[in-house]
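2024-03-11 09:14:02 DEBUG pipeline.ingest accepted 1 chain
2024-03-11 09:14:02 DEBUG pipeline.ingest length=378
2024-03-11 09:14:03 DEBUG pipeline.predict start
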Amino acid sequence: MNVKPLRVGIVGSGGIAVNHHVPNYLRCADVQVVAACDISEAALEQMRERHGVADCYCDYRDLLARDDIDLVSVCTSNDMHYPVVMAAIERGLDVYCEKPLAMDLRQAREMWAAAEAKGLRTGVNFSHRRTPAAQLAREIIARGALGKITTVQAVYAAGGTGYAERPGTWRNDRQRAGWGGLGDMGAHILDMIRWWLGEDVVEVTARTRTFVPQRLWHDTGLPTPVTTEDQGMVLMSFAGGAMGYLCGGYIFTGRGYDQRIEVYGSDGGLMYNQQRPLELDVFLPPDVLADYQVLRQGKTADTPYTTILVPERLHGLIPGMNGVRRSVIMDFVDAYRADDADAGFCFQPGFAEGVTVQEILDACALAESGACWVRLPL
């Protein structure tokens, strides 16, 4: 059977597009990246050289005016998500968007409602769901192996070295980013925790702080105030009664993009480390532990956690691609192909999940401004 090629237009051609979106689309059979857009000619030149995308534009409206695009992949700064997505929806195009979905909850809800009204397919790039150890953590929690969940604690640490000396970019400008470290790093964690637990966050309080108040801007070289947070902390409660803590930001000196989540319940616990994608540290009932291959056995009361290997069935390896694993984008393309009139489009995370994370972030902003706890839904 001949499959009609899925034709993709890329809006925003920076690093996330060049290094993640486009390569993952091109790994899928019968997908063509037909055009790209960016306000930077240098970014477009990189798109041409690395991926052979010949048709490039500096105005997204010119790209959307084409009649040979099925899907728009939005990789812009956060302030442009709403206008680009709404324009694509108006054209009747399906949309895959970077996280966080929007600048605020109002925008996110409008985007979701507009896409639903037209019956369009949507996706949000909460890409960490595809980490093999994250898949295993969800499996263990879903089978009830931890018992009643009581506690979640999570850190998404970025920083590396020389953080204070880095030039300012749009991520340091609240008018373009909406959030800094908490929204950028924390959005992944908030989605992951909800996905694992299958529970809504019902109450939050939050604090953020900017440790580097001024930077030399990347294009002007001029000292410019930083208006986004370097780090944020959130306390939260879940619908099932569990309590949670999240810290996310850029100020963790010496750490790369290092995501760690711990979940504890009445019968067990697990410790997820993104830097070890094929392992998971667990404390499980013996009958559950017997289902998995043990790499390192917990030996004492002080070190009771056992390290288990992620089963190969969850590795997501693509045959013939030298260890390349499946991505959320590739899952989206598969769901796109499988869509039919009877089953409908079955994919998560879509705009619904993007709205949920946006709601938690908006609640955090309200909590900080009022120095209080804020209940959800808003």
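2024-03-11 09:14:41 DEBUG pipeline.report The chain has a mean pLDDT of 95.
2024-03-11 09:14:41 DEBUG pipeline.predict end
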